[in-house]
Write a structure and sequence with these properties.
The structure is a single chain. The chain is an alpha/beta fold and 152 residues long. It has one domain: eRF1 domain 2 (Nucleotidyltransferase, domain 5, 2-Layer Sandwich), CATH 3.30.420.60. The chain has four helices and seven strands, in the order βββββαβααβα. The strands form two sheets. It has a five-stranded mixed β-sheet. A two-stranded antiparallel sheet has the order 4-5. 26% of the residues are buried.
Length: 152
């Protein structure tokens, strides 16, 4: 059984964007159709909660936070949102097979946040960031990375 058979959902995610796609053909000639594009909500930071600042324990005390820490936290929250979406759709039966495509770090975050029933639907993982690649390039990468066992 090929990982990219018809009806398989493919999630391509990084910490700032996620593409939810479905393969409408077969594994030999995948044709991915975008179901949705997920991006973090544009949150208006309050002046006291802007990036790079956080409250300390005392009154009116704030400390600097490294920008990398703030960005990492924002990415983690976005990955949680993507996992919540997949959990919701997967538990309602929107898909039976799922391929995750992301950097190793994002794959790990997703894996930890997916419901066990949804995680059981994961048929393949590709540790590569492809969110900004054209669809035909994504299809080619997946076709070569997810060859059926008999063809390897």
């Amino acid at each position: 059984m090929a990982a990219l058979e018809q009806g398989t959902w493919v999630i391509i995610a990084d910490g700032e964007k996620a593409l939810v796609m479905e393969n409408i053909t077969d594994a030999q000639d995948p044709n991915l159709v975008v179901v949705s594009v997920e991006e973090p909500e544009a949150r208006q930071p309050r002046s006291s909660a802007r990036a790079g600042r956080r409250y300390d324990g005392g009154p009116k005390q704030k400390s600097a936070v490294e920008e990398d820490t703030w960005k990492s936290h924002a990415k983690s929250l976005f990955v949680q949102d993507v996992a919540n979406l997949l959990n919701k759709k997967g538990l309602k039966g929107a898909f039976n097979r799922l391929v995750l495509v992301a950097s190793p770090h994002v794959l790990g975050l997703l894996r930890r946040r997916l419901h066990s029933d949804v995680l059981a639907k994961v048929v393949a993982e590709v540790d590569k960031t492809l969110t900004n690649h054209p669809l035909h390039k994504v299809e080619q990468v997946l076709k070569h990375r997810l060859k059926p066992a008999a063809a390897v």
